[in-house]
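Q: Given only this backbone (660 positions), what sequence would you predict?
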């Protein structure tokens, strides 16, 4: 009962507001007081609840269909009596559906009390996707926000007669017919609960028979609606990796030998018709081995495999990896067993090797890119010759450059819970240094967006890892822009993290990160002591630049210029005092200046300064002035001599007319 109370409370307290909800509840013949609790909530919230009571149907399909028959809202959400919603779940999911005009929205799920929850499809928000370009198909439960028009248009209902997996047929068809699917991954929308009494239907329903029947129906559905090829293989991968696996778990526990053999032959017949070589190459190694044993009719070996896999899963320890030449194999049962004769390629995991990696530090100093971290291939023993390279690959041209790294000891790696601490990686750390001014044949790394990879080599097996999205908390995540000195020239380089995957990229040559955007003027004024001196204050947001490079520049007519170095007043603040003494008569534009190459550089014009007025001073007995010109986007000073006679006549005229 406390499960149901929490479920209903989570619905009535939704931030979307009760005025936008209709709550349909179905008491499917329960005997634990569920009906009374539903009526209590209906009485407490008049007009919000519809409560239906019916004879026990033996599964969730009939009560869900009853709810659909009475639903009137634009969207429906199925919620089991064990589970509950996050406070903003419906509001966020509805907003995602309406903004992107999608028919189905998956909200992030979180397991409670040790219950596992789907996770691979919730790595990031996905405004609009489908089953072929995301992992949503790996979550075939109906606990989603669904546009009711889609359900009624295709006359969809849950099939009767199944105690488990019945939702796959309903949800699978929804996915295939949906005009767009959204994923809310940045908020815990749905909490799925493992009951203390073991009362969850999915976990309490035993036997392989019903699971195999649903598996056959799902294979038929996919083959009917998706043409043969990569898209079909992608969906079939899910059914073999999860549903066939679950069927085999129950088959291995079956006490009736005749039923066990019958179920096994059903799986064998299914694979004979629906397991092409392209799909065999796509599934993971243990699924491939399961399929191979089934196709060979090796029932006892299949049972043994499930026992071994159950031990692995309960202990958290996974089988090791054998590397030979340019291939890697997982050491699952019957590998190179002469009696069974299973081919090596069934165990091949070369393309699916799991890696672990972390960025610990990265920066550019004196033109040298420095990076530390670790990277290794999971479950590969470290006594096999291993090396790591830093790879920079230009995004558009695909040009790449590889740089060696030095080993950094990591004695703690592998000592955690993963794989029960069986595998250790004491030399997986690395340090890399790349002189950007000499990176390519002794010359500068060319302009471009250089994506950062780490290549881990074990014998002749090489895996490249897109690097940077896993990092220590102290690693700066905001873009870091540097001005790098290359002899008498300077160039720009920036370190930043891509969106949405947050991988590290080096931007050489201001493709995305402009140096001038990192320079800022805080204010200007005339010196109170020296009226011919302009005082400029500002700041920079550069992570690094050559000492003394930044200055305030006055550019006059005919290409004349004067540059005054700034004086740092803090980590990123500066001032500069610019004397107008000696400037030729004419207009002078004021800007911040960083030299680049061949007389070029980065110029950041000082914008109009409304508080800055004209000034006058005496230079060698001659009165001079600087007038602030009215320019739209820049500060221009008009410098010249004061015309004495003209000024006197103007003053006399003012006096005689009585003006002051």
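A: Predicted residues:
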């Amino acid at each position: 009962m406390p499960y149901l109370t929490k479920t209903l409370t989570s619905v009535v307290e939704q931030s979307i507001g009760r005025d936008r909800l209709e709550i349909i509840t179905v008491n499917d013949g329960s005997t634990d007081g569920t009906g009374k609790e539903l009526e209590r909530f209906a009485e407490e919230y008049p007009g919000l609840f519809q409560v239906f009571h019916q004879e026990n149907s033996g599964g969730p399909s009939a009560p869900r269909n009853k709810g659909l028959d009475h639903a009137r809202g634009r969207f429906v959400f199925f919620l089991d009596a064990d589970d509950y919603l996050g406070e903003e779940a419906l509001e966020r999911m509805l907003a995602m559906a309406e903004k992107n005009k999608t028919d189905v929205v998956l909200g992030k799920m979180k397991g409670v009390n040790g219950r596992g929850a789907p996770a691979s499809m919730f790595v990031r928000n996905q405004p609009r996707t489908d089953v072929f370009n995301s992992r949503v198909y790996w979550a075939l439960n109906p606990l989603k926000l669904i546009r009711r028009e889609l359900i009624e248009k295709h006359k969809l209902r849950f099939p009767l007669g199944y105690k488990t997996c019945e939702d796959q047929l309903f949800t699978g068809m929804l996915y295939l017919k949906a005009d767009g699917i959204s994923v809310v991954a940045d908020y815990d929308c749905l909490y799925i609960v493992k009951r203390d009494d073991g009362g969850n239907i999915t976990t309490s329903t035993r036997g392989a028979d019903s699971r195999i029947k649903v598996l056959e129906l799902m294979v038929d559905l996919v083959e009917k609606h998706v043409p043969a090829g990569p898209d079909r293989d992608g969906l079939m991968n899910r059914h073999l990796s999860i549903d066939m696996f679950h069927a085999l778990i129950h088959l291995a526990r079956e006490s009736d030998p005749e039923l066990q053999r019958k179920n096994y032959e059903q799986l064998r017949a299914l694979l004979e018709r629906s397991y092409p070589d392209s799909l065999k190459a796509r599934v993971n190694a243990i699924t491939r081995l399961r399929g191979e044993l089934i196709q060979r009719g090796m029932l006892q070996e299949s049972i043994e495999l499930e026992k071994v896999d159950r031990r692995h899963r309960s202990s958290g320890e996974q089988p090791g990896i054998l590397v030979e030449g340019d291939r890697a194999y997982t050491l699952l049962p019957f590998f190179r067993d002469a009696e069974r004769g299973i081919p090596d390629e069934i165990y091949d995991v070369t393309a699916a090797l799991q890696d672990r990696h972390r960025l610990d530090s990265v920066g550019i100093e004196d033109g040298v890119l420095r990076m530390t971290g670790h990277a290794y291939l999971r479950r590969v023993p470290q006594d096999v010759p291993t090396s790591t390279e830093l790879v920079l690959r230009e995004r558009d041209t695909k040009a790449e450059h590889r740089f060696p790294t030095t080993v950094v000891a990591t004695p703690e790696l592998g000592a955690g819970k993963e794989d029960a601490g069986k595998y250790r990686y004491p030399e997986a750390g690395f340090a890399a240094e790349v002189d950007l001014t000499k990176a390519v044949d002794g010359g500068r790394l060319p302009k471009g967006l250089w994506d950062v990879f780490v290549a881990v080599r074990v014998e002749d097996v090489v895996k490249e890892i897109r690097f940077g999205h896993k990092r220590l908390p102290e690693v700066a995540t905001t873009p870091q822009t540097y001005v790098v000195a290359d002899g008498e020239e300077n160039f720009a380089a920036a370190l930043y993290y891509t969106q949405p995957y947050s991988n590290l990229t080096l931007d050489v040559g201001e493709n995305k990160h402009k140096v001038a955007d990192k320079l800022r003027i805080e204010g200007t004024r005339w010196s109170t002591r020296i009226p011919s001196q302009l005082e400029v204050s500002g700041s920079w947001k550069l992570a690094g630049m050559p000492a003394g490079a930044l200055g305030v520049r006055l550019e006059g007519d005919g290409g004349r210029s004067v540059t005054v170095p700034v004086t740092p007043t803090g980590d990123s603040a500066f001032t500069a005092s610019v004397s107008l003494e000696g400037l030729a008569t004419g207009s002078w534009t004021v800007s911040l200046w960083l030299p680049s190459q061949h007389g070029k550089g980065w110029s950041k014009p000082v914008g109009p300064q409304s508080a800055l007025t004209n000034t006058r001073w005496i230079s060698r007995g001659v009165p001079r002035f600087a007038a602030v010109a009215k320019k739209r986007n820049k500060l221009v000073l008009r410098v010249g001599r004061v015309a004495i006679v003209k000024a006197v006549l103007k003053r006399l005229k003012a006096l005689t007319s009585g003006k002051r």
